[in-house]
């Protein structure tokens, strides 16, 4: 009779333990199900991290939780670029030590420490004195570590348990891909916004550049700009000064993309204002240099060729500030050399100007380095000689035809290679 009662007691105890286990399993499934429903439809990574941390602290009764996202797109993949903290009480924030981050990068598995100060895996590491225990699990998305979920200090017990580790590991595994999807969605939206802004900037830049060449008695003029990206740093302009003088300029600012486009717009506005105020080409460039130097960063500069065409007198007075020498085709080719420093580098330097006559049939070609430095698949540059040969061979053609021949030759020379720099060409031809 006693043995039967003992047997029944053991059976009852087994049933109680099984019921407890099932109860815990149901509680865990409820936690995981609630978490999945809470974050499944979200695209805000900040909100997702907040929910993950709050639910994790509730699930394993933690004091403080931290999600550390690592930057997987840099050379230093251990670089932290987002860190989110949730605290259950008035506790100062704990920081994930770089050694712990390195350990997780190498091992990519859960880490439980109930006495971090004496853990042999981190011997000599100085832990925050208030950290009594911690539980750390990897956030893996498609076999890639995207972050780490860490819970510090058990509130009601001295130690984290294996059950806590198992549950937090499942939470991490369930949440990682949702969090990564949200991050990718946010990056996509940021890129789309940038694309729209670039398109707006490109449209503005097109308006800033001349839409057509001016009509000047005795001259045939053409200009064109082709950007390597949506926006560029090349510039050309035609600025009427008075009834007999036309300013013609071409420039190339440092850098590429949106920053270069902004500096290009600055250069254009500066030259336009000074072209009307200055008495000569050199004075316009000197004043423009002063203005650019005082409103741009020290590592930003521009090359510029600025000439004043006096069409009744048929002369060009010019100042070349470090730009690729335009070529004036008379009987021979005459390069209008850069005898002055670039704009935006030194204050108070004097600039010089030169003057040339433009005779009937003469052709002036101004260009940016995107023409001569264009490369083919063999890494060979288009070069000045090819440009000179084209101008000589086509001197009898209209200005627009000369320009189109140059641009087409550069594009064909590239043989399908991506355009690496902006291409700008201006052609001025004196006609009868």
Order of helices and strands: HHEEHEEEHEEEHHEEEEEEHHHE
Mean pLDDT, as a whole number? 86
Number of separate strands? 15
CATH homologous superfamily heading of the largest domain:
PPM-type phosphatase domain
From the spread of the alpha carbons, the general shape counts as: elongated
Kindly name the structural category.
alpha+beta
Classify the beta-strand content into a percent band: 15-25%
Overall structural domain count: 2
Overall description:
The protein has 432 residues and is of the alpha+beta class. The chain has two domains: 39-188, 2-Layer Sandwich (Beta-Lactamase); 209-430, Phosphatase 2c, domain 1 (4-Layer Sandwich). The protein is built from nine helices and 15 strands. The chain has helices spanning 2-39, 45-60, 98-107, 162-208, 257-277, 281-293, 369-372, 383-393, 399-414, and strands spanning 62-70, 80-87, 111-113, 134-141, 144-154, 219-226, 234-240, 245-253, 302-310, 315-321, 327-329, 333-335, 354-357, 363-367, 423-430. The protein has a five-stranded antiparallel sheet with strand order 2-1-5-4-3, sandwiched between helices. Strands 6-15-14-11-12 form a five-stranded antiparallel sheet. It has a five-stranded antiparallel sheet with strand order 7-8-9-10-13, covered by helices on one side. β7 and β8 (245-253) form a beta hairpin. α2 (45-60) runs antiparallel to α4 (162-208), α4 (162-208) packs parallel to α5 and α5 (257-277) crosses α6 (281-293). It is elongated and about 120 Å long. It starts with a helix and ends with a strand.
């Amino acid at each position: 009779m006693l043995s039967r009662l003992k047997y029944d007691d053991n059976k009852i105890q087994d049933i109680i333990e099984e019921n407890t286990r099932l109860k815990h399993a149901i509680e865990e499934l409820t936690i995981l199900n609630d978490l999945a429903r809470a974050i499944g439809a979200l695209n805000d990574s900040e909100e997702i991290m907040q929910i993950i941390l709050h639910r994790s602290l509730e699930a394993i009764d933690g004091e403080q939780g931290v999600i550390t996202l690592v930057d997987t797109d840099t050379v230093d993949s251990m670089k932290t670029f987002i860190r989110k903290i949730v605290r259950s009480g008035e506790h100062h924030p704990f920081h994930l030590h770089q050694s712990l981050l390195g350990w997780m990068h190498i091992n990519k598995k859960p880490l439980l420490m109930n006495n971090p100060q004496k853990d042999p895996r981190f011997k000599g590491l100085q832990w925050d004195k208030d950290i009594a225990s911690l539980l750390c699990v990897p956030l893996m998305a498609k076999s890639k570590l995207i972050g780490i979920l860490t819970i510090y200090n058990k509130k009601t017990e001295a130690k984290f348990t294996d059950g806590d580790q198992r549950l937090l590991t499942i939470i991490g595994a369930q949440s990682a891909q949702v969090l990564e999807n949200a991050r990718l969605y946010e990056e996509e939206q940021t890129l789309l916004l940038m694309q729209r802004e670039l398109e707006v900037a490109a449209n503005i830049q097109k308006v800033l550049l001349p839409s057509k060449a001016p009509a000047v008695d005795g001259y045939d003029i053409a200009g064109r700009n082709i950007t390597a990206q949506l926006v560029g740093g090349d510039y050309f302009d035609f600025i009427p000064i008075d009834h007999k003088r036309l300013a013609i300029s071409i420039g190339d600012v440092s850098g590429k993309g949106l920053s270069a486009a902004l500096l290009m717009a600055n250069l254009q506005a500066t030259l336009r204002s000074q072209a009307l105020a200055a008495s000569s080409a050199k004075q316009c460039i000197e004043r423009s240099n002063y203005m650019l130097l005082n409103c741009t960063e020290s590592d930003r500069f521009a090359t510029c060729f600025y000439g004043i065409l006096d069409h009744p007198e048929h002369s060009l007075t010019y100042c070349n500030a470090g730009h690729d020498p335009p070529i004036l085709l008379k009987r021979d080719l005459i390069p209008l050399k850069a005898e002055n420093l670039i704009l935006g580098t030194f204050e108070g330097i004097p600039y010089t100007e030169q003057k040339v006559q433009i005779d009937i049939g003469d052709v002036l070609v101004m260009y940016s380095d995107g023409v001569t430095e264009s490369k083919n698949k063999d890494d060979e540059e288009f070069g000045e000689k090819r440009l000179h040969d084209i101008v000589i061979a086509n001197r009898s053609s209209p200005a627009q035809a000369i320009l189109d021949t140059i641009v087409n030759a550069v594009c064909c020379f590239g043989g399908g290679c991506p355009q690496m720099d902006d291409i700008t060409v201006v052609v001025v031809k004196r006609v009868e």
